[in-house]
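Design job #97: recover the sequence.
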């Protein structure tokens, strides 16, 4: 039997200020179950607001508290035979520390270009560009 109900998820393109030439670094998580590099994200709990879910997933997967910024494009794809909808936000890391766990065994902070190259899924690379556009727009006052 094919269950076509949509899997709802949320996540963030997590960033922090950096003295590097790009001015920021992005957090990427390595998930051993899938052997991939991605942005922190996960399924919403029953009745959970997507914004709350995004902040919770960042904390669970990276150990970082964050301030949500602008919403980024929603990503749609099929996962385990079902449609999945992941809402993303730009989020600035405000503190915390990473501890490897069952879901995420590594965390990397990389400049945007290096992060784009490291991401496993092309759909995740597009979110790097969306984040940079959102931040430049916010920093330019528009």
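Job complete. Output follows.
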């Amino acid at each position: 039997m094919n269950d076509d109900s949509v899997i709802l998820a949320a996540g963030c393109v997590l960033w922090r200020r950096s003295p590097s030439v790009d001015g920021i670094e992005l957090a990427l998580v390595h998930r051993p179950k899938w052997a991939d590099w991605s942005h922190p994200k996960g399924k919403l709990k029953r009745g959970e607001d997507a914004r709350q879910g995004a902040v919770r997933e960042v904390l669970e997967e990276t150990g970082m508290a964050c301030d949500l910024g602008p919403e980024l494009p929603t990503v749609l794809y099929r996962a385990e035979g079902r449609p999945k909808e992941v809402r993303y936000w730009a989020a600035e890391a405000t503190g915390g520390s990473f501890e490897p766990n069952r879901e995420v065994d590594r965390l990397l902070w990389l400049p945007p270009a290096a992060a784009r190259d490291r991401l496993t899924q092309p759909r995740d690379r597009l979110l790097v560009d969306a984040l940079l556009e959102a931040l430049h727009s916010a920093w330019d006052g528009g």
